[in-house]
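Entry 14. Ran structure prediction on the chain below.
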Amino acid sequence: MSPLGKYYVGAGVGSLLALWLLPGLISWLVVIGLLAAPAVAYFMLDESQRKRLRRIRRKGIGS
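Output, structure tokens:
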């Protein structure tokens, strides 16, 4: 499994645990934080950093 896949599985498990253990609104805030944080971080990168990240990710998939 790729490192990115492991992150998504971990975020999904963390989200389910948060929904189960924490009360109402707090659990939904944790879920949004776990699932939206990577997307927000990616969009905060400038174009050259995004290109470098895509190149590194593509190179890692083939090896």
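Residues 3-62 form one domain. Will compare against last week's run tomorrow.
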